[in-house]
Specification:
The structure is a single chain. By secondary structure, this protein is of the alpha/beta class. It is globular, with a radius of gyration of 22 Å. Helix 10 links the parallel strand 9 and strand 10. The strands form two sheets. It has a seven-stranded parallel beta sheet with strand order 3-2-1-4-5-6-7, with helices on both faces. Strands 10-9-8-11-12-13 form a six-stranded parallel beta sheet, with helices on both faces. The protein has 16 helices and 13 strands. The protein is 48% helix and 16% strand.
Amino acid sequence: MKKVLWITPSILPSSGGQAMHSLGYIRALSKVCELKVVARATSLEIKLAESDNSVFQGLDVTLVNAYKHKSKFNKVRQPISKWISHNSGVMVPYTNIVNTIKDTVKNFEPDIVVIDYIGMYNYYTLMKKICPRARFIYISHNVEFKNFIDIKANKAKKSVASNYWIERRKKYEEKMICESDASLCISNSDIDIFESEFPNAKNLVFAKPLIRFNKIKAKNDLKKFDKKLLIVGSMDWYPNINGIEWFVENVFIPLVKRDPAYKLYLVGRKPDYRIKQLGEKCKNIIVTGNVDSVDPYYKECDVSIIPVFEGTGAKIKVLESLGKGIPTVCSDFAAKDYSLNNREMLVAPQNAEAFERAINELEYNLETRMDIYDKMERYMDTYYDINPEIVKLFE
């Protein structure tokens, strides 16, 4: 059984999609290899993990607080480090994490080192020196340099230094993709971009999200339709902002004019000012901001809407809607990595009529809602089979 050391910036599910994706694969691969995890964490995350032993049950996980010692030096270093990481996409290595990794290697001697996320690039260069004979596997969550270009393009204020930081990110990403023995990519579209941008890319393997979601809706819940629509996601992420603005302007406002009983819930952290303005302009739009749990909204609402038409990576909210058991209207762009061939959800192009037609079908046709629910269940029953190519990499 191979010894694997997995180094990640975050692993608690509450940290977001990146952590949830990583934890899904850590759980799956721990069955075929001896796997140890070293993860950066805040003091609050460490307390949360200590209070809930079920989070890492059966896993060998070491959480390391990068800012364990409070000092004047750290007070200065922390904002500088965050600024560098924000622009370069690469985290500054911290002594606590480096020492933990070195101690782990002394006693473990890994055959495989997993570098999870481009932000851990500096730890990759460190591990290359410490474990020169180990095989390296890189976990790609997005095409980071492409996302950074799009983020800058969506900013009102353009930075003169943007091109410099874009090239830096692209350089880091190219080294990780081309030098690693294999890269696990969350989207087939991402693989296409990497192969196009980096001619020396090798062994790129599709790694669909293995995140498990608790089912919230029972089939009987679908018998009623209260005209409540739901969009869940980070409300400061440009694909969500642009997609929501498009949906509200082209689909929801005309829908409300036809039927004022319709409501739209926008649930997610850090709502951008454009998202807040939508709630201010229309009383039928409820902007919640961050919530302790999205489950009550999945339970209460009738339809999940995923109006995403841009961005790299997998659209995890597609899997979340399927897992929660809520009928969903989703853009064809967001659905492309999920092989939804049997109407497990209603997939529509970026076309207002197609979105409204799908919502109307769910409103007026109970049989459609029930049929979709059954198909979602069958889809999820077989979804979590792991790609055999990935298993071979760790055996």
